[in-house]
Structures are given as C-alpha cells and as structure tokens.
Design brief:
heterodimer, A: alpha+beta, four-stranded mixed β-sheet, 3 helices, 6 strands, 28% strand, B: alpha+beta, two-stranded antiparallel ribbon, 34% helix
C-alpha cells in the first residue's frame, strides 16, 4: 500500500512539473510571410518571456559628431538593439514585432534590404513602417521599437 | 488507509482544473475610457500572443481600398485585422492593444465611433497619433496591433 501512495505522489509531482514546463516552453508560429518586405503578417507566440524595448536611435559617443547616412544609422541602430537583446538574455532572432519610424518613407526599401541581412527569411518580425515629422534628434533618420519573446 | 487514498485522489482531481486554469486566458480591462472607446490598460494572464504587422486599408493584392474615404479605410482595416486574427485562431475582439497612425488627427472621433462598433466585449488599450506618411500612397490610416487568444 505504501508503494501505491508513493507512486501516486510521484505521479502528482511529475504531472505538476510537466504542466509547469509546458506553460513556459516557447512556441512560435510565423503565419503569412512577406519575405520581399522582410516582414511576417502574423507572429503567434505561446509561452516564453516578453521583452519590451524602448525606441532605439543611432548615436555616437561624440555628441558633436554626425550620425552618418541612412545605411550607417540603420546599422548603428540595429547594433544597439542587438546589444539590448543580448543584455536581456536573447538575440535579434527573438524579436517578434518591430515598429520602424522613418524620417522619410523613401528609405523603406533600403531598410528592408538591410533587415534581410540581419533576420532569417521565414522568421521576420511583424513590421510596421511609419513616416514621422520629427524624431528626438534633428539628424536622426529613424527610430526603431521592437518587442521580443525569449525562450 | 482507504480514506487517505481518497483524500489524495480528491486533491489530485481538484488540482487538475487549476493547472488548466493557469494557462487559460484571463483578460481584465483596467480604467476603461468609454468616451474614446479604449481601456487605459488591459491586464492579461495566460493565452497565446499574436503580434501583427502594421495593417493598412488594402486588399489581398495590396491595392488601396476606399481612396479618399476614412471610414471606408477603417472598415477595411477591421476586415484585414479580423482575417489575420482568425488565421491565428482567434478574432478581432481578441486584440488587446493597438496603435493607430493617421495622416490627419482630426479623424480621431470617427475612429473612436468605429472602434466602439466592433469591440463589444471590452476596448483594447490604444494610442492614436498623426503620421507624416504611410507606406501605401493614399492610405489615411495604419494600425499596429497585439492580440491574445484563449488557447
């Protein structure tokens, strides 16, 4: 009889741990890929840990130095986002949604071209592009705000 | 002895629904602002997250719908959003957060009225802002959304 109790108890514990593990396990589905736009229509996520990032813009140590052209700012901004993601315990691959605020929408194709080099095809974040009148610094050409889910 | 076994069995049975409940979606609309058809916050526990790319008033071919007609464009966005949410396994009313970008902020009341028409169970947390330009020429509005579906 004692064995029966023990086995029931262990089953209970095993069940509880299994439930906990499945609740935390990350499941990501990329529905409706839009590879030509480096975007995915729908990113469905179950489990994991959410990371909400601030809007990131290009910056250089020397406040008097310029921020450079669009390509330089795109790289600088995404490098900063990569650093933030790594500090959070993840990587760029964990980004599920990304809002890109551009000072001029004519830069969109240029950004898409760059995004294709840093994200994997088929698992692009759900992107939103918007042109804004001003960003915090007058020479900023873009601000990017991502949302990520970690394993 | 049988009594103890019974207690164990009962606790096992009564615990299992709680385990299921922990994963079930719980939504709480905090601080609703009915006049503007949004909630100050939406508290979410459990469920599956759905991140959508920015939705524009376009048809399946990416062609602008209802040019020159703000309400017509919003209707098309609700249609596209509902379709995307259904692809993910939910529907439009599972949207918990949205950011509305319009090319003219004077349309805010119209947007409010149209949001009230579609969200009957509770309003999503929402932000509204004027954008200088949107990706599709002639688009007056683009909406980025996050949903949480019950599964």
């Amino acid at each position: 009889m004692r064995m029966t109790y023990l086995s029931i108890l262990s089953m209970l514990f095993a069940g509880a741990f299994a439930a906990q593990a499945s609740a935390q396990e990350l499941k990501k589905d990329y529905i409706g890929p839009m590879n030509d736009q480096a975007s995915t229509n729908i990113v469905k996520v179950k489990g994991g840990t959410l990371v909400f990032l601030a809007g990131h813009t290009a910056s250089v140590a020397d406040r008097n130095a310029g921020l450079g052209n669009f390509d330089a700012q795109a790289k600088n901004t995404m490098d900063k986002i990569k650093a933030t993601m790594e500090k959070s315990g993840g990587s760029l691959d964990d980004i599920v949604q990304m809002s890109v605020y551009l000072q001029d929408l004519r830069y969109e194709p240029q950004f898409v071209k760059y995004a294709k080099t840093i994200f994997k095809e088929g698992s692009y974040p759900a992107m939103t592009f918007v042109e804004v009148t001003h960003l915090a610094r007058p020479e900023s050409l873009m601000e990017i705000q991502p949302v990520a889910v970690l394993k | 002895m049988t009594k103890r076994l019974l207690v164990l069995l009962i606790s096992c049975l009564s615990l299992s629904p709680f385990a299921a409940m922990a994963q079930e979606r719980q939504l709480e609309m905090v601080g609703p602002v009915p006049a503007s058809a949004y909630s100050s916050a939406v508290k979410v526990k459990g469920g599956t997250l759905v991140f959508l790319a920015g939705i524009e008033p376009t048809d399946e071919q990416g062609k602008l719908v209802a040019p020159g007609d703000f309400s017509g464009q919003v209707s098309q966005i609700w249609k596209n959003m509902d379709k995307a949410m259904k692809q993910a396994g939910g529907n439009l009313e599972d949207v918990v957060s949205m950011t509305v970008f319009t090319t003219e902020r004077r349309w805010s009341d119209q947007l409010t009225d149209m949001r009230r028409e579609v969200f009957k169970k509770g309003f999503p947390a929402s932000a509204f802002m004027e954008a200088a330009k949107l990706p599709t020429p002639g688009a007056f509005v683009e909406i980025r959304a996050i949903g949480v579906i019950p599964e």
